[in-house]
Every structure is written in C-alpha cells, then in structure tokens.
Amino acid sequence: MDPRPSAGDDVRSPLRLPSKPFLPPRFALCLVICLWGLSFIATKTALREASPATLVALRFGLGTGLLFAVLRLRGFPLLPPRDAWPSLALMGFVGVFLHHLIQATGLTTTTATNAGWLIGLIPIWSALLSAALLKERFGFLKLAGLVGGTAGAILVISHGKPITEVLKLPSTHGDLLVLITTFTWAIYTVVGHGTIKRLGPLRATTGAMLLGWLMVLPVFLFTEGWRELSHLSIRGWGAILFLGIGCSAFGYLMWYAALERIEASRVASFLYAQPLVTAVAGPLLLHEQFWASTIAGGLLVLASVFVIQKAPVLKRAA
What we know:
It is a single chain. By secondary structure, the protein is mostly helical. It has one domain (25-312). It contains 13 helices and 2 strands. It has a two-stranded antiparallel ribbon with strand order 1-2. Helix 4 (112-118) runs parallel beside helix 13 (292-310). 49% of the residues are buried.
C-alpha cells in the first residue's frame, strides 16, 4: 500500500524515532517521492511476468512482513484492538484489495506515465468526500479545481483525440481502471482517517495491509498464482521487491518519520513532484511515448489540486 496521504494529512506517527534521524528529513522525502514515482514503472515491469493477483499478493506479503518486524522492534502490540478490526478490514478491502488489484489490471494496458498523472486526482476526490461528510460548502475555488482536474484527466486519457476514437483504444480501458483507483484511494483516505488518528499510522496501516493481503490471497490461490513464481526473472523479482520493501514499507516509514520533524504542509508539498518523476522515468526506462497533451493534462491536474487545497473551508448554514 503506497500510503500517499492527502496533502492536508497532519497525522503524526508514534514511531519512537531516535533523536538523530538516519537520513536528513528533506533528503528522505526526496527519496520517498522517487520511490513512489517509480512504483508505476516497477509495476509495469513486474506485470510483464506476473498476473495482477500474483503481483499484489507478493508485494503486500513483503510489505506486511516488514511492517510487522518494525512493530516488533518498536515495542508495539502486533495486533490492533478488537474493536478496530472492522474499520481496518474496510481499509484493507478498499486500499489493498480493490485499489491495487484494479490498478495493476489497468496498468496491463495503459502506460505508467498516464497512471502517474491520473493518480494526482486523489486529493480532489478526497476534498469532495470530506466536504460531503463535514457538510462544507463547495465554493468557487473548489469548483474550479474540480472542473480543472476533470479536464486534465480527460486530456491525459484522450491525448487530444476525439472521444469516439479514444474509446476504441485498449489503453483507454486501462486509463479508466486507474481513474477508478483514484476514487478508491480517496475513499480509503477518508474512511481510514479516524482509525489512523486513533491507532497511529504505523499500527493502522500495518493492520489494514495485513487484512487486505489476506483478502488477496484467495484470488492468488484460485488463479494458481504460485505457478508463476518459477518463471519470474531477476528483473521481475527485483521489481516486486522494490514495490513491497521500497514503496509499501520503507517509503511509508520515511514519510511519517519526516512528518515528525517537518510541518505537514511542507511535507505534503513534495507530493507534487511524484507525477513528474513518473513522467520522466516512463519514457526513459520503459520507452513509453511522450505526449505533449499528456504533460499538459497532468500539469492541469496538479494545478487544480493546488487550487482546491488553498481554497478556504466554508461551512454550510445551519
């Protein structure tokens, strides 16, 4: 699970960090953004040799195991309180089972570059859901951000071509699946906020990741995913290890460690660079085609997210 918090996430992680961090916080943040920006590249690489179910099962098996080891080292209880299991199960279902299976399936036909730009829509949907739950008015700036983000997503998917032509392309189906995952992660962010605040992000994410992984396992077994393991090359295993250990475990730990030492708003600003990393790495590492319209649409998405996050909170009249 790439934790990718919303830009307004101010949750602090009870990691009992040492007085001197292993890495300077800003350097660690740059490393995290590179890891998450390259996650779509690694996913595309792994999907050349493994099915989506096998990839997700291996990735989150590794990530869960490492996070449990960190829990043990930090002296936290390995299992969350019983009354937190339902909410953690919901988080695991939405954030691991649905989100990553759909996203991996989408990446079998679309490009990593497109996925990187589209995922930038998550804060917009999170703002929409939060506004609905908190009964906030959707002011002009938020409306402008919503319209701009939608227009940017359409530009990324269509490359400026007519919609009738675009719908016939196999990549469009993948783009639409990735677009769905921007909703699932926004839902995860909103429904998991209370649990993360109560348990702390380390325990909450570990519990949700465990339960989500257990939900993926039956799909892995039903599709006989274990038969694919012997066919994985060094490159395939490297991509899976990068995703499980680098993106889903170390990336998470470094992100929340940085939150312990830097203001949340400053930490969140680093997220704007993530799609740029993917946009550069896609053509360089996967030889994906470079579309000026895709860059323009992606930048419009980022600008729209910035507008929404700067918009004032307007409460509805009672």
